[in-house]
Design brief:
The complex is a heterodimer. Chain A is mainly beta. Chain A is built from no helices and eleven strands. In chain A, the strands form two sheets. In chain A, strands 2, 4, 5, 6, 9, 10 and 11 form a seven-stranded mixed β-sheet that branches. Chain A is globular. The termini of chain A are far apart. Chain B is mainly β. In chain B, 0% of the residues lie in helices and 59% in strands. Chain B has no helices and eleven strands. In chain B, the strands form two sheets. In chain B, strands 2, 4, 5, 9, 10 and 11 form a six-stranded mixed β-sheet that branches. A five-stranded antiparallel β-sheet of chain B has the order 1-3-8-7-6, with no helix packed on it. The chains are: A mainly beta, B mainly beta.
C-alpha cells in the first residue's frame, strides 16, 4: 500500500512565525504535491514537484515556499505565518503514468493565531 | 480554464436507498477523471480513475461511470459506513501536472 505521512496532525502557531510542514512518501513516487483545503473552496494546489530539487507553482503559491532535497520528502514552508493561512494542509504523491492518481496523507490542521 | 462542478452539495439517504452523485466537468481534453472519498478530518482516499467516455469501474457498493461531459458515482444499497464526502477531480491532456477538484458531495446514510 502507498503510504504518505505528514509530520503533524495538528499545529498551532503565532502570526509571523516560520512554519515547516513535512511530508514523506514510501513508494518511490516522482511527483509530490501540497494542497490546502478550505470549506466551500475545495482543494487548491499550492506547489508541486516532479523531481528532486524541481518545483512548480500551483494556483495559490503566495506566502509559501517548498523544498525537495530527497525524492521521498517534500516540505512546505510558511515564511511568516498569517491568520489567513489557517487551513487543512494535504500532501499527496503520484507516479508519472497515465492513471496519475494521487495518494494523500492524513493532513495537518494548522491554526495561526 | 478547467472546471469541475459536483452536485448535490449534500445528500441524505436512508440505509439501502440507492442514488447517484454527479460530477460535471469542462476540460481541454481529458487525460483522467478521479473519484476520492474523504472522511472528516482525514485526507482523501483514492477510489477510481476513468479515462474515456463509456468506461465504468466498480468497487463494492460504488460504481463510477463517465460521459464526455460528466461522471456519476452510483451507490447501491448504501450502508452508514459509506457516509463521507466524495470528491471528483480531472486531469487535462495538456499543461502541467495538477488536478482540478470539485468541492465535493457530503453523503450521509441514515441507519
Amino acid at each position: 500500500d502507498v503510504k504518505v505521512t505528514q509530520s503533524s496532525r495538528y499545529l498551532v502557531k503565532r502570526t509571523g512565525e516560520k512554519v515547516f510542514l513535512e511530508c514523506v512518501q514510501d513508494m518511490d513516487h516522482e511527483n509530490m504535491f501540497w494542497y490546502r483545503q478550505d470549506p466551500g473552496l475545495g482543494l487548491r494546489l499550492i506547489y508541486f514537484s516532479y523531481d528532486v530539487k524541481m518545483k512548480e507553482k500551483g494556483d495559490i503559491p503566495e506566502g509559501y515556499s517548498v523544498s525537495r532535497e530527497k525524492k521521498e520528502r517534500f516540505s512546505l514552508i510558511l515564511e511568516s505565518a498569517s491568520t489567513n493561512q489557517t487551513s487543512m494542509y494535504l500532501c499527496a504523491s503520484s507516479r508519472e503514468q497515465r492513471g496519475y492518481e494521487q495518494y494523500f496523507g492524513p493532513g495537518t490542521r494548522l491554526t495561526v493565531t | 480554464e478547467d472546471q469541475v462542478t459536483q452536485s448535490p452539495e449534500a445528500l441524505r439517504l436512508q440505509e439501502g436507498e440507492s442514488s447517484s452523485l454527479n460530477c460535471s466537468y469542462t476540460v481541454s481534453g481529458l487525460r483522467g477523471l478521479f473519484w476520492y472519498r474523504q472522511d472528516p478530518g482525514k485526507g482523501p482516499e483514492f477510489l477510481f480513475t476513468l479515462y474515456s467516455a463509456g468506461e465504468e469501474k466498480e468497487k463494492e457498493r460504488l460504481k463510477a461511470t463517465l460521459t464526455k461531459k460528466e461522471s456519476f458515482l452510483h451507490i447501491t444499497a448504501p450502508k452508514p459506513e459509506d457516509s463521507a464526502t466524495y470528491l471528483c477531480a480531472v486531469r487535462p491532456n495538456f499543461g502541467n501536472e495538477k488536478l482540478t477538484f470539485g468541492t465535493g458531495t457530503r453523503l450521509t446514510i441514515i441507519p
